[in-house]
Amino acid sequence: MTRVRALTRFIDPFILLLMATVGLAALFPVGGSAAEAVDGATKIFIGLLFFLYGARLSTQEAMDGVRHWRLHVTILACTFLIFPLLGLAARGLTPWLITDDLYTGLLFLCLVPSTVQSSIAFTSIARGNVAGAIAAGSFSSIAGIVITPLLAAAFIGASSGFSADALLSIGAQLLLPFLAGQLLRRWIGGFIARHRVLVKIVDRGSILVVVYAAFSEGMNEGIWSQASWGRLLALLAVEGVLLTIMLLLTTHGAGRLGFGRADRIAITFAGSKKSLAAGLPMAGVIFPEQTALAVLPLMLFHQLQLLVCAFLARRWSEEDESPGSTSRSLPE
After folding, report:
1. What does R_g of the chain's alpha carbons equal in angstroms?
2. Residues 123, 139: Cα–Cα separation, whole Å
3. Segments in 30-162 forming alpha helices (H)
4. pLDDT reported for residue 6
5. What gap in Å lies between CA 53 and CA 172, rounded to an integer?
6. Residue 70 and residue 129 in contact, taking contact as beta carbons nearer than 8 Å
7. With bands split at pLDDT 50, 70 and 90, how would you rate the model's confidence at 12?
8. pLDDT band at residue 158, thresholds of 50, 70 and 90?
9. What per-residue confidence (pLDDT) applies to 274?
10. Are 259 and 267 in contact (CB under 8 A)?
11. Cα(119)–Cα(54) distance, rounded to whole angstroms?
12. Mean pLDDT of 157-184
C-alpha cells in the first residue's frame, strides 16, 4: 500500500486508468455494429460531460473573478495565443522528427483550454492566488468551447477535413449541453454539489469511453504502425521543450508585468497547462476519423505537466514556509 501511495505521488492514477483503457482497446477493439453502438454512446457521454460542466460552474463565481482582469487576460493570452504560435512554429519539425499525424495532435494540444482542477491544486500547494486560478480556469474552459474549435478550423482544417458542418456538430455536442447545464443549474446545482463523487465518476467515465472508442478505431486502422516508439519518444522530447518554454515565459513574463508572487504562481500553473478532460471529448468531435493519434500528444503532455508542476509547487511551498525566504526560484 505504501508503494502504491508513493507511485500515485508521481503518476496521476487517472493516467493509469487511461493507459489501461488503451490496453483494453488494443486487446479487444470493437468493430461493425458494436463500434456504431460505442460511437453513439460516446456522443451521449460527451454531451453529458459538458452538461455537467455547465451545471457545476457557478456564474456568480465567474463574474466575481472578472475584477482581476489583468490576471485573466494574461492567462488567456498564454493559452490561446502563445501556445498556438509555438504549435505553429513546431511545423518545422515534420516530417524529420515527428510525423504529420502526430504534429496535428501536437498542434491540437496547443489549442485546448487550460486545466481547472490541477491548476487550482498546484496554486494552493504553492500558496498562490487560488481564487484567481479558479476564475481563470473557469474562463478558459468556457472560452475554449468556442475558441478551440475556431482555432482548429483555422489551423488544422485543411488537413483534418474540418468544415462548417463539423463546427455545427461541435456546437450541438459541446456548447448546447453546456448552456443547458447553466440554465438548469438553479434546480440541479444543489444535487450536483451533494453528489460530487457520483459526478466525478460520470466525468472520468465519459473520458474513458471516448478513449476506448478512439483507440478501438485506431487499432482497426493500424495506429501503432503509424507511430513508432522512436517517434513517440521524439514527441515527448518536443513536449518537454514546449512545457519548459511556457513555464519560463509565464514565470518571468508575469514578473515583468508587475504581478505579485501569488498572482505569478497562478499564472505559471494556469498559463502553462492544458486540459485533458476538455481536450479528449473535443478531439472526438473535431477528429472523428483520427481521434487516437490526435489525443496521444495531449495524453503525454498531461502526465508531463503534472510531474513537473507538482515538483515546482512543492518547492515554492517549502520556500514560502522557510524563515527569511526570498522565493529565489520564482522570478520577480
Report:
1. 20
2. 16
3. 32-56, 59-65, 69-77, 83-89, 100-109, 117-125, 130-155, 157-160
4. 53
5. 15
6. no
7. low
8. very low
9. 92
10. yes
11. 19
12. 67
Q: How many residues can be counted in the chain?
A: 332
Q: Residue 40, SS3?
A: helix
Handedness of CA 207, 15, 217, 234 (dihedral sign): positive
The region that residue 10 occupies, defined by phi over 0 for left and psi between -120 and 50 for alpha, beta otherwise, is alpha
C-beta of residue 220 within 8 angstroms of C-beta of residue 57: no
Q: How many CB atoms lie within 10 A of CB 60?
A: 8
- Cα 304 to chain center, whole Å? 12
C-alpha cell at 164: 462548417
What confidence category does residue 106 fall into, taking pLDDT thresholds of 50, 70 and 90? Answer: very high
Which pLDDT score, from 0 to 100, does residue 235 have? 93
Look at residues 216, 173, 206, 169 and name the one whose alpha carbon lies nearest to residue 35: 216
Contact yes or no for 216/29 (Cβ under 8 A): yes
pLDDT average, residue stretch 156-180: 65
| Cα–Cα distance, 274 to 79 (Å, whole number) | 8
Entry pTM: 0.74
Report how far residue 265's alpha carbon sits from residue 192's, in angstroms, rounded to the nearest whole number.
30
Contact 238, 103 (CB under 8 A): no
- As a whole-number percent, the residues of the chain with pLDDT over 90 amount to 21
Q: What is the pLDDT of residue 52?
A: 79
Residue 63 confidence (pLDDT): 59
